[in-house]
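Glycoside hydrolase family 88 protein structure dump, as promised
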Amino acid sequence: MIDKLPSSQLKDDYYQKIQLIAEKLMSLSDEEAPAIDHSLSEAKLAEIGFFARDFGMKEWDWPQGVGLYGLKKAATSLKGDVAGFIESWFYEQLKLGLPLRNINTVTPLLALYDYEFAEAISVEWAQWIYEEAERTEENGLQHVTSGETKRELNLHPGEIWIDTLFMTGLFLVKMGKKHQRKEWVDEGIYQTLLHVKYLHDRKTNLFFHGWTFEGRHNFGEVLWCRGNSWMALALPIILKTAEEDLTTSEKRFLTEAYVKQVEGLFSVLDRRCYQWHTVLTNEESYCETSGTAGILAGIFLGIDYGLLDRETYLPDGLKVLQSVLDQISESGEVKGVSAGTPVALTEDAYHRIIQAPMAYGQSMVLLMLAYAKKYIEN
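C-alpha cells r here:
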C-alpha cells in the first residue's frame, strides 16, 4: 500500500524509466507475444485477446498507432531521434502495404497527421471517415476492425464502441482544425455526443464498452478500465481542440460528462494498490496498467485545462503514477497490460484476457509521464 505522497524517488524513477519504456516500445517485437495454443480457433483466440497483428510494432493498426502517439507526446523528455523513428516506421509500412481502412487502422494517423510526409494519406483518410465509413443508426461510426489479415474486415454491424473516439474521433477533429474543415470538426463533436449518449452508465457515471443498435443494449454492461481510459483521454482533448467550435450547451454537456466520469473513477480506485481493476467495479478482476495509466493521463490533462480541481485529484494522482512506475521492469517493459479486448457479455470474459507486452501499454505510460512532467518537476 502507498500511504504517503511520493518523494524525490518519484522524480528519479521518472527520468530513468521514461527512456527505458520508450526504447522498449521502439524495439518491441511480435516474437514477444505470449506462448499460446495455436490449435485454438480464431474465435477462441479472440476470447482471450490473442490477435497476432496486435503484437510488436510491425503492423499498421491501433496498438501501433497508440504506440506512436505516446512516443511522440513524450519526445521532448527522450534521448534519440523519435521523429526519425516515426518517419522510418511510416515508410516501412508503405512498402509493406497499408491495411483496409477501418476505425482502428485510422489510429496511426493521430500521430502522423501533422508530418508533411503523411499529409496526403491523412487528408484522404479524413475524407473517407466523413463520407464513406460504415454507419449505424443515428449515423454513428460503426466500429469496424481488421480481420485476421490486413485485407479482411470485421464489420460489427450496428455497434459503437468506446474505443472509437480515441482511435478515429480525435484524428477527425484535429484534421478539421488543421485544414479549416468545419464539417470534419462538427462530425467529430457529433460522434462524441452520440457515444456519450449511448455508453454512459447513469448509476456510476462511468462508461460501458459498447452499444448495439440491433439488440438495443450495452452487451454485458461491463465498465471496462481501458475503455474508460479512452474516454477520459478523448473528452478533454476534444474539449480543448474544438473549443471554438463547440456551442455553449455542447461544452457544458461534455465537460459535465468528463468531470462526473473522473468522480466515478476515483470512487472505484483501489487505494490498496492505487490502480484500477480491468473491470472497474470488480475487485476480483486484475489491476490493469494500460487503463490505469491512460485514465491518469486524462486526469492530468483535465487539471491542465482547468476542468478538474488540482487539489482534489493531484495527491491521489501522484500515488497512482508511482504505482504504475512500479510496474516497469528493468528492461522497460510495462507489466500488467491486458491484450486486445472485444466487447463481451460477462465480467469474467474481461478477466480472462491475457496479459502481455503491448505497444499501447508502453505508450499509455509514456502519455501519463508526458502529461505529468510539470508536476514531477515541481
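Strands lie at 145-146, 153-154, 159-161, 210-212.
lmk if u need the other ones
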